[in-house]
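wait is this the right file?? whatever heres the structure
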């Protein structure tokens, strides 16, 4: 068992209270590490360090230098890929192949923002006055970042990359379930040239450690990824100081299959859309909408394939689905499985394997009504709800009948139909003939109750920038008013 510490002001340390919490391996249910249970006092120290680092130098660091630091961080992740992937899998349960992908993705994210740092430009604005007017971009200051457990290091990279490129300093809190990969990466922060205080990693529980980050008056912006429920708490708290927030929340994304789609690719896409990462994916295609004339065949084909998915410890290379992240999450998904059995018919799974580890079976419900609980609430596990539809209009009506709007996908060979449906979908990310590819260069975020603000691409960096208008008078004569 390992003892981890938080990373504040360039040093590893315990919580002021000395309290710790346990971190588990979801495949064995064993405690693998302890972490400091940070609270308001620890957050206050981290914010003070971040503020000193911001005013003491980081905001004046050249964009080239910030970019180089981000590129070195990417290099470290690539060099330590196997070790970090192993930690990620041990801590989150996800298949090792997926963790390796996540490490590559995190490195690529830092490379992207390393390059973008030198391309943050303002504008010169044409005005009628005899003046030069500019709009320049400036870093907001100390950013607070709160991240979930489903993609621990990748979610941290998506937030750290743009914040550091923009010139902000950061206090970041990983999820209580999965703090290890980020803490491990923090061991390299000094070596790559990150000055003390620029990135502070505080660990602890949501209300006790995340709450004080949101409430701290010296934190200028909050970036949050997690549940809609906590998103609302954060927005309410941030309102007291009219603090800027960006919220990347959950979803109940529709994955729509028209009968003219390539059948094999469609079945594959339906399974991948909701079973990847054990279904612990914000953009999971958890509502599978299938046109009536292929419906029965489609359900049967999905069920047959789902039953062949290899469920097991993430650390074993052949595993295609690992355990869920925690006992709490397993119980939550088990509850939805039981609700689903009352609301619809079971095509595959519906239970959990016996023995150690927080596993559940890949589960497919069909003949689901879109108003059912399993079609309306985010389950965040490997549970697919299949819903039949008649035609294009019917598909769109069902697809948009959800409080969420993170992602959606449409499968058809008809490009005209594809575009009509794309235009009709109320979602921040829409895929055609695929589901889940995530491009670091493109905007990521939701409509409706899936939140607001966009991560990734140049949109990601805007979230950490203020815009300053500068007016330079070129008229030497007095104003002449009085
Ligand atoms: P969560 O319970 O909302 O927690 C997310 C983070 O917020 C954790 O670090 C959590 O701390 C912290 N937190 C909890 N209560 C808080 C409070 N009162 N004040 C401040 N921080 C608080 O979500 P989760 O269960 O970890 O993650 C799953 C959710 O994230 C799903 O809804 C999923 O859809 C969403 N998600 C969205 C995206 C996206 O890009 N839109 C990506 C990934 C995940 P603890 O460690 O104590 O829980
Ligand atoms: Mg939580």
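ok assuming it is, sequence goes like this
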């Amino acid at each position: 068992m390992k003892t981890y510490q938080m990373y504040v002001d360039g040093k590893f340390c315990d919580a002021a209270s000395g309290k710790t919490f346990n971190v588990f391996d979801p495949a064995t249910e064993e405690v693998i590490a302890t972490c400091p249970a940070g609270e308001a006092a620890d957050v206050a120290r981290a914010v003070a360090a971040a503020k000193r680092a911001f005013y003491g130098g980081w905001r004046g660091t050249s964009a080239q230098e910030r970019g180089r630091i981000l590129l070195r961080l990417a290099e470290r992740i690539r060099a330590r890929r196997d070790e970090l992937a192993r930690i990620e899998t041990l801590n989150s349960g996800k298949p090792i192949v997926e963790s390796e992908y996540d490490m590559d993705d995190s490195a690529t994210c830092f490379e992207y923002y390393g390059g973008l740092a030198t391309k943050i430009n303002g504008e010169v604005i044409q005005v009628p006055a005899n003046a030069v007017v500019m709009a320049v971009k400036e870093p907001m200051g100390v950013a607070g970042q709160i991240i979930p457990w489903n993609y621990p290091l990748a979610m941290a990279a998506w937030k750290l990359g743009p914040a550091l490129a923009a010139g902000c300093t950061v206090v970041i809190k990983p999820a209580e379930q999965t703090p290890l990969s980020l803490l491990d990466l923090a061991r390299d922060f000094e070596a790559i040239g990150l000055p003390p205080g620029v990135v502070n990693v505080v660990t602890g529980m949501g209300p006790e450690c995340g709450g004080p980050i949101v409430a701290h008056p010296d934190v200028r912006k909050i970036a949050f990824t997690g549940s809609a429920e906590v998103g609302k708490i954060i927005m309410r708290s941030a309102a007291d100081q009219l603090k800027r927030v960006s919220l990347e929340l959950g979803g109940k994304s529709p994955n729509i299959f028209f009968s003219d789609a390539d059948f094999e690719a469609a079945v594959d896409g339906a399974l991948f859309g909701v079973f990847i990462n054990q279904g612990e994916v914000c953009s999971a295609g958890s509502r599978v909408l299938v046109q009536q004339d292929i419906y029965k065949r489609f359900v049967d084909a999905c069920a047959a394939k789902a039953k062949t998915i290899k469920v097991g410890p993430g650390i074993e290379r052949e595993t295609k689905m690992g355990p869920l992240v925690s006992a709490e999450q397993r119980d939550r998904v088990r509850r939805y499985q039981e609700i689903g059995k009352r609301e619809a018919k079971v095509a595959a799974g519906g239970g959990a394997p016996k023995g150690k580890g927080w596993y559940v079976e890949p589960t497919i419900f069909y003949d689901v009504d879109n108003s059912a609980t399993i079609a309306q609430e985010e389950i965040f596990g490997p549970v697919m709800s299949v819903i039949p539809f008649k035609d294009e209009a019917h598909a769109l009506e069902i697809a948009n009948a959800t409080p969420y709007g993170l992602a959606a996908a449409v499968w058809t060979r008809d490009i005209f139909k594809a575009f009509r449906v794309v235009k009709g979908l109320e979602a921040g990310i829409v895929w055609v003939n695929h589901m889940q590819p995530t491009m670091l260069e493109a905007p990521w975020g939701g409509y409706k109750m899936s939140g607001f603000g966009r991560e990734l691409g140049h949109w990601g960096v805007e979230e950490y920038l203020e815009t300053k208008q500068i007016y330079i008078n070129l008229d030497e004569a007095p104003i002449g008013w009085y």
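Residues 310 and 320 are 5 Å apart (CA to CA). so i think its the right one actually
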